[in-house]
Design a protein that fits this description.
7-stranded mixed sheet, Endonuclease, Chain A, alpha+beta, globular, 28% helix
Length: 174
């Protein structure tokens, strides 16, 4: 499968897929904000912070790697503080050079595209409010491996030694 993803399909095809992972979820994004998602419980549908989804996944034993470029704002931090399991179980790294948007689902499916992990980028914003985004969702083993290797090289600090932007790095990986 190689599927072109545009605009609202980022929410339907990419973000909602996060809740279904069984083992590993890797998220790489430049910008990270207080993103909300639909929560279908019984016959009622409500919204909840995306961090609640990550919290549930961590409690189910899913390993989550989050890589982003800058500290999120106050609203995100307030939501983050509501989920203590995120504090100790979420594997999070900051790198000011990260601009890619990559999500890897159970090391079998990858999203590679333009959408940040924000309401306007990949979230539930209405047609008149969301960004125009584009990406590819694929289970092609070569593309998944290439995206995972790229993500892992940054997450693991492979590029830190020769980085010329250390002055902007508040939380050095290495």
């Amino acid at each position: 499968m190689i599927q072109y993803i545009a605009d609202r399909d980022h929410y339907v095809q990419v973000l909602q897929r996060c809740a279904t992972v069984k083992h590993d979820l890797w998220i790489g994004t430049s910008d990270l904000k207080d993103l909300y998602v639909e929560n279908h419980k019984g016959i009622r549908c409500s919204v909840e912070p995306f961090l609640a989804v990550l919290d549930r996944l961590l409690k189910q034993g899913v390993e989550i790697h989050l890589l982003h470029a800058k500290e999120p704002g106050d609203n995100f931090r307030a939501d983050f503080d509501k989920y203590p399991s995120l504090w100790s179980n979420l594997q999070r790294r900051l790198c000011p050079r990260v601009h890619f948007k990559i999500l890897i689902f159970d090391n079998c499916v990858a999203y590679i595209g333009s959408a940040n992990l924000t309401g306007a980028g990949i979230g539930m914003k209405s047609d008149g409010n969301h960004n125009f985004e584009a990406g590819i969702l694929t289970d092609d083993p070569t593309l998944v491996d290439l995206a995972a290797n790229h993500f892992d090289s940054v997450f693991g600090g492979l590029h830190c030694r020769g980085c010329k932007r250390k002055g902007y790095c508040g939380d050095r990986i290495k």
